[in-house]
Hints:
Layout: H1 3-30, H2 38-53
Helix pairs in contact: 1-2
Amino acid sequence: MDPLLVAAVCGLLTLLIVxxxxxxxxxxxxxxxxxxxxxxxxxxxxxxxRALRGKR
Length: 56
């Protein structure tokens, strides 16, 4: 199998896993939260995702 294809598939699977984890994190954080707290929760989740991706 071509190494470039293997790297692309691994990258795609990693992206899929990270995006699913982010969605589950947001859903669990927003479950039962009041509407006034949602903006701060989403901001904190975005900061965590940025840190995990190495952008901060």
